[in-house]
Amino acid sequence: MVRFAADITKESIVDVEAVVRKVDPPVKSCSQQDVEMHVERLFVISQAEPRLPLQLDDAVRPEGEDGDENRKPGVTQDTRLDNRVIDLRTTTSQAIFRLQSGVCKLFREILDNKGFVEIQTPKLTPAASEGGAHSFPVSYFNTTAYLAQSPQFYKQMGICGDFDKVFCVGPVFRAENSNTHRHLTEFVGLDIEMAFNYHYHEVIDSIYDTMVQIFKGLRANFQSEIQTVNKQFPSKPFEFWEVPLKLNYTDALVMLRQAGVEIEDEEDLSTPNEKLLGRLVKDLYSTDFFVLDKYPRAVRPFYTMPDPKYHKYSNSFDMFMRGEEILSGSQRIHDAQLLTRSAEHHKIDLEKIKSYIDSFRYGTHPHGGGGIGLERVCMLYLGLHNVRQTSMFPRDPKRLTP
Amino acid sequence: MVRFAADITKESIVDVEAVVRKVDPPVKSCSQQDVEMHVERLFVISQAEPRLPLQLDDAVRPEGEDGDENRKPGVTQDTRLDNRVIDLRTTTSQAIFRLQSGVCKLFREILDNKGFVEIQTPKLTPAASEGGAHSFPVSYFNTTAYLAQSPQFYKQMGICGDFDKVFCVGPVFRAENSNTHRHLTEFVGLDIEMAFNYHYHEVIDSIYDTMVQIFKGLRANFQSEIQTVNKQFPSKPFEFWEVPLKLNYTDALVMLRQAGVEIEDEEDLSTPNEKLLGRLVKDLYSTDFFVLDKYPRAVRPFYTMPDPKYHKYSNSFDMFMRGEEILSGSQRIHDAQLLTRSAEHHKIDLEKIKSYIDSFRYGTHPHGGGGIGLERVCMLYLGLHNVRQTSMFPRDPKRLTP
């Protein structure tokens, strides 16, 4: 039987019938040191091919220093993704995706406790929702549908339909030809929308608190997963404030300019500027998580509520983790006339968003919300550097498989 | 102020500042009889247009008898769906979609307790997965992607990736030109996949128990929602056994033939025959829920594990609620060679499913699973008659809006 067992290929699935016996002295080379199994029968249930496309040992090896002469080979990202079912078996992948399922679970539980209702929104939509570009067209019987770039319009209709506070978890699609470490063409959106009573900061506070509770839940319940990932990809623990740190866009501009950046008042933040801002905030406030509030209207979508006093600015915000955007949100225009004017100003075909605008004609609570990228939250919480590590089957302009 | 208040259009949103005072004698015409509000200030926050596209009173009226002369008008399905944000405000819609969110929550909690891990599967896929027809093509940069008809291949890859037991909740897409009461082109799949130890009935038992716990959870926590829906759409309470009632396909054929149906041994069940079978099972076993096991291979997809003894049959099953299919499941072929032969037999282009077949080359646990249609479960549990009632924004060959 020993010879038979020696011939079983790595990664095969076996059934073992054995007697568990105490051993003395302990087996020092094993993690289970006190007992061993005395095998009586051994069956191969599913035999792996002898040559694996990647070795699990290689796949969990920490990235060595570039100058390290004894550095053993790692596994490239493409090899991992082309053979994802094997890469998923590594301790690191197991930890990442178990933590990811934890984020989803925490997100829903926390919102459920806050009185939110989960809704299901369609991904097939009649028009390229947010202005036109970046939607995937779908051949839909005798017409063309578009994949939803976000569930936002439907979340808002949920609010118009008196659900008061809603959330949804589902795929969102972006037809952007962006080949970066943080863009996917399909990712999972954790979306929130809620009516508020006095001020849209109720929305910010609600989302911020949800994120903080998620971070605390991960720290409390996924410590072994975090440590497993850290073994291969070392990073500093994620720091955050319990109360929202809200910076105004104008404050961010001041900080960036003091650091030597040239930027206009109504200019959007580039990725390098966002990262720099993240480092400046971390130095100043010791947090990896903050809210940037009051974006210029010029850089936000047509449905964003303008600031009532300073018309160049808007009631909109992003949230950042380790200097990267993970959420975009705003108070929405809930008045059909104002929304129509804003859409016209943005040169959006009114006919295409008619049912959306009509939703606001029959009484609507002031409301706001935002959408969180699940893969980015996992990547940044764990201090990883590529969103493909936290997407089980990532999709980008160059990858549609497996 | 009374005149001002009288002029406020129905469905407008108002802010009221008032003093709550005790009243004696009670106000009999109100549901809140002991106190009333003495309004001091009144603001219109969002004014509804004076003419609503549908009246809420009409929208919740029970459907009267056809011969009823005093019958007041209801609201047609299309009017409801064209004006969904108003229709969602009815007590019936509120109850339906709150119950639906309860189904999702129960599904996940129950599986979480059973040790399942939630995974996220891509909807953009490289090939029309299950043979070809009925997939929506998507223009994807310089190539064509297809919307996933089910998350099955990816759930299975999760099993191949050592996750052991997985579930996912997400949209699935069917490009079938079916205009029936129970078909949608996009619906929400509650999907399960699991490795098993001895027999694929472990999978059936696990799914059955999940469904039973959902039914019990709804009965315990959503009684007021169920009663609200019943007021408009009367139906009998949903009955079920706690232990799985499993019938074999051949038993079903005997029952149907005894009832006068002519049907061949390897013929699939038509919708009328499924409904008849549901009535026969209900009469005989007093349950609205049962499993039909061991379908003929001829009517199941290529990845279905054949019965080891009777090669005309397969280790596959459907589950039924009130005589309508809500789940299709099976043991999957986990051997790459057998899977290749089966795909060839079904004339499937092997090149297109290469990454799927390759997943099984490196050791795979025997496994099985199934996919549940969320909207159908809600419809049939509540005894409704159209799946569009339990889809917030339904999609069918003729409807892509709102």
Characterise this structure:
The structure is a homodimer of 402-residue chains. The first copy, chain A, has 402 residues and is an alpha+beta fold. Chain A is built from 13 helices and 13 strands. In chain A, the strands form three sheets. An eight-stranded mixed β-sheet of chain A has the order 3-7-8-13-12-11-10-9, sandwiched between helices. Chain A has a three-stranded antiparallel β-sheet with strand order 4-6-5, with no helix packed on it. In chain A, a hairpin with a 2-residue loop joins strand 5 and strand 6. In chain A, helix 5 crosses helix 7. The longest helix of chain A has 23 residues. The mean pLDDT of chain A is 95. Chains A and B meet through helix 4, helix 5, strand 3, strand 4 and strand 5 of A and helix 4, helix 5, strand 3, strand 4 and strand 5 of B.
Key descriptive features of the protein:
402 residues, 13 strands, alpha+beta, homodimer, 21% strand, 3-stranded antiparallel beta sheet, 8-stranded mixed beta sheet
